[in-house]
Prior knowledge:
Layout: H1 25-30, H2 37-49, E1 53-57, H3 62-74, E2 77-84, H4 90-103, E3 106-111, H5 113-126, H6 131-149, E4 153-156, E5 167-168, E6 174-176, H7 183-194, H8 210-222, H9 228-236, H10 242-249, H11 254-264, H12 270-284, H13 287-291
Parallel strand pairs: 1-2, 1-4, 2-3, 4-6
Antiparallel strand pairs: 5-6
Amino acid sequence: MRQCRICGIPETVDGVELDESGVCRACRRQIRHIPSRKELREKVRKALENSEKVLVAVSGGLDSLAALGLALRICDEVVALTVDTGALHPEAWRRIILARRMSGIEWEIIGDQKPFLKLFEERLTRAESPCGPCSRMITRRYERRARELGVDAIVTGHELPHGTSPVVPKDPPVIRAMCGMTENERREIVEEEFGLTVDKISGYTSNCIVLPFALKLFYMKYGYSFEAPRLAAMVRYGYISREDMEQIMTPPTLSDLKELLRECEEWIPESLKQMLQKVINKISNSDLGRENGD
């Protein structure tokens, strides 16, 4: 299997074409225009300094907690918001509780599981990624609350900039606070501000239970990870290495998914538990599940 010699994205990913030198179209277009991480970090710092009151979207994962920690260091007034999708890992909730206690800030939790659970069921049934529509649903909720609170900006844990800027020109603007920051730098912020370490779930996510199941089903259907384009972009921007990308793109095993469900089954909605058990049953009955030795 051929891979882009710069970002490592496999040629098997839909829409990826490598030229004679082994470089993908995205790298050819973007590589000369990527700002340095130092420049991106400076833009984030200035945007935060110019925002007196901010709303930080916190999911309990590494990136959003690091964004919260950075905002607490710089901004005068910080409000945190967590959207309860029904799919947050118990460890993510534990970190949210501890960060809330450590920071002492106003922290709102929006309980709105029903539309998310419907989305997860639809996407898992079709073996498609739930991430894009889920992210848009969450975004609509914190943008609406941000306007109600009259904040100067929304802060998120995203790292890939909007064009060449980490600030998305919306009302209010969105600051992608992790632009320019490596994973180690993010971990340092979370440990220093909240005394927390953040482990990954099934090799990739640090908060969402559904993602590993969706990744496995998508891989069985298409033969590659739907996270490949985003991970390749992270390699392109220097946030992770190609070796890290290849490790993350390896789909979870059936044993991984069974263990994950055991960890969470007492904490998640019954309907989600049943969905994930159906996925496990489907994989168990497939050739790929048997090949994994599970």
